[in-house]
Amino acid sequence: MKKVLILASVASMIDQFNMPNIELLQSMGYSVDVACNFREGNTCSEEEIRTLLERLWQKRVGCYQIDFARDVTELARNVKALWQVEHLLQKNDYAFLHCHSPIGGVVGRIAGKLIGTRVIYTAHGFHFYKGAPVRNWLIYYPIEKLCSYCTDVLITINQEDYKIARERMKAKRVEYLPGVGVNLARFDREAADRDAVRKKLGIPEGMTWVLSVGELIERKNQEAFIRAVARTKGICLTIAGQGPLREHLLGLIDELGVTDRVRLLGFRTDISELCAGADIFALPSFQEGLSMALMEAMSSAKPVVCSQIRGNTDLIDQGRGGFFFDPDSVESMAASLNKIMNADLEAMGAYNRLKIRQFDLRTVLEREREIYSDISRME
Q1: Which end of the chain is more exposed for a tag (fewer CB within 10 A), N or C?
Q2: How far apart are CA 300 and CA 166, in angstroms?
Q3: In what order do the strands lie in the sheet with 96-100?
């Protein structure tokens, strides 16, 4: 039986994005191994990592620890990771390698070139993009350009990245996929769920509930959005996610005097239920590839306010599914919140539910099946 390796810098990327890929490859007759850092850098808790390992074991997936550093500047650790991946490729003679995440993508492609293993790389969002800091272009663009020479198939998940890849990268083949796929069936909920979820969380009667989901880090831009909510009457905001900015954001919420209507929910496993109960979804990020949280909100027929950035513009149609704002402007965020509060939320949500069908997991997996079938035949 031919073997395939799925590689990512952290286990949370396997858990959140790659379980359907594993099942697809197995259905195609491949034996699948997974290599990543199970010990550090994950957005998953230790308990969730243990659950992931148990699920992989039940699926008879081989698991290998690779000591990736999350920071690209930690060269010594990532050189060690390169040696580990190279050794793994030599040992197991994989038909091909599918790598994810910037560091996993760099290490995997270099190792694949050294050993002669075919490589697919999924870019979940280039770090260089329109409006990105100059530093990102100076560091990440040349690295990605060089590694593209070692790439058999480069998969991009938003239109801006696809255009850059087609025009500037040197991969043998460049493909566009509509994200990693969202399981629409997961978000079919009865209307009765809405009231139950609101009651459970204690959302005040008569308030418009805005939900946001994301790691509590600077890139997700929650501080500015909390400031915008503080300026907008009639809104209760909840943010699902954990991260290093939690204490800072709690202090800000107290300072602004909005503890009665802005809450940090921590890590949640019931995002579909939260989406069912919320009135509006918000995504204020500075940078996204193609946000799974936003796709899940659209699957739940939620209207959206979000930053006007790459990826978000692939998903949301201004004025029909929601409203954009400038992520650098609290005033712009507050203006978008006021606009959507006066809009037909039900019609916007229905529009988003219809549009997200083109990003359905089944569509993505069918395209990936074709890519997996073709790679062994590539020259």
Answers
A1: C
A2: 33
A3: 62-65, 31-37, 3-10, 96-100, 118-123, 153-156, 173-176
